[in-house]
Amino acid sequence: MTTTPRAGSVALSDSGPPHTPSNEDFYAEFTARNAGLIDPREQELLRDAAILVAGCGSIGGAVVEPLVRLGAEHFMLAEPDSYELHNLNRQHATVADIGHNKAVVLARAARAVNPYAQVEVDERGVVAENMTERVSEASLIVDGVDVTSAAALACKYALHVAAHDLGVPVVSGYDIAGVQLVLVYDYRLRSLPVLDGRLSGQPVDDLDPLWFLARVVPLRALPVEIFPVLRRQLAGGGEPFPQLVYSARLFGAIAARVAVDLLSGRPVRKRIVVDAHRLSRPLSARCRLALVRWRELARMSRTALRYRNATPAATVDMAPSDGRSAS
Fold this sequence. Notes:
- By secondary structure, this protein is of the alpha/beta class.
- 40% of the residues lie in helices and 13% in strands.
- The chain has one domain: Rossmann fold (3-Layer(aba) Sandwich).
């Protein structure tokens, strides 16, 4: 895999530092403890795979280190943004990384683990100018593109269109309170529509983030803690969407295993939901909150249906229709 830098790119690859064993000797020892759980064929497929990480924030940034430690050696990291202080509660960064491009920081961290990892960085992110080329080079795509702006959503949709057209599988993640939702789109299956058909027939210009999420994220995946936040946001509240480190980091663990399965040609679940909060609760609390959650789902389903049926860029009244306050 070539790592010749392109316009807007930085190549971080080639040989390891002095006194490092040869690549083959290093790799054999580095992955020795995988043996018995990752078979030699799987290990070689992972090692040779070209993995495009599109967006290196909470989702994309969570998967790079697990994949490197599992044995992946070829990465393309695409990310236009730099770390800010508010990212540090959940993303793979330190105070020293504030102001530095996220992909550049992750690339250096990857090579600190495996000095033979070939990592190319594109600080433009995935954009129209590089979309087809980046996707065509990839064996697997991790979709960590932001969902908080119309411009980012346009890039996310274009990424999935390109992956669909070129038959490249995509793994997406959404951290929601204590939940990590992993959605797998195996576009090698030619019958699979873009984003599983969730936006079929809908205009995709100037997408509203909440409208997009209402269509793509299954309502049943939402945890009980997020409903008060959603009600405030749907009613026009401007608060940022809360995110937690353990929910984001769950994506790295799950997506790394999904990557092994996809690259090995095994079928995988299209939807994986892990709720860290629910896992830690005793049975009594789980039962009590399950009832609360079902009531919230019943209330939110009416709102979500109206939102899904609205025009993507439309502004509509999303206050609950049962007469109760949205707050």
